[in-house]
Amino acid sequence: MPIYEYRCSDCRRRVSIWWRSFGDAERGTAVCPRCGSVHLTRLVSRVAVLRSEDSRLDDLSDPSALADLDENDPRSIGRWMRRMSDELGEDLGDEFTEVVERLEAGESPEEIEKSMPELGGLDDDTAGGDGSSDLD
Question: For residue 8, which phi and psi values (nearest 5 degrees)?
């Protein structure tokens, strides 16, 4: 089902109209759902493509996805993390978003880890009293 965006010349609003098929969109007359006008101009809009989970995972396993990754550059790591989360198509939470934004701003992973110790998954009860853990 295609969705086309239009600008109404009468009420000056941007509206989206859902059509049953591409044929209906070509043959039909768009009517503004706000004011009922037929004086609409079709706009160029973004295209959304639904992909299967297998297709997204295939893209993640493509070695070329790592071609521009520089492990010594926090900004590069942040861009890579954002791209991978976009490929997964899921919200990974506020903490993840904060880490990515801080990396993209150039903050080092070590600085982020110091200011967000809860990210390591260890609390003070499982870590040593000096801040070290059994994993060190």
Answer: -85, 125
Instruction: Give, in order, the Cα–Cα distances in Å from 72 to each of 49, 80, 86, 93.
Output: 34, 13, 22, 25
Strand segments, DSSP code E, in 12-136 are 14-18, 40-42
The 10s digit of each residue's pLDDT in 13-42 is: 999 999 999 999 899 999 999 999 999 999
Distances from the Cα of 103 to the Cα of 1, 41, 43, 86, 119, angstroms: 39, 42, 36, 16, 14
pLDDT by residue (tens digit) across 42-93? 998 777 777 777 877 777 677 776 777 888 888 888 888 888 787 777 778 8
Q: Check: CB of residue 19 under 8 Å from CB of residue 6.
A: no
Global pTM value: 0.42
Euclidean distance between the first and the last CA atom of the chain, given in angstroms as a whole number: 55
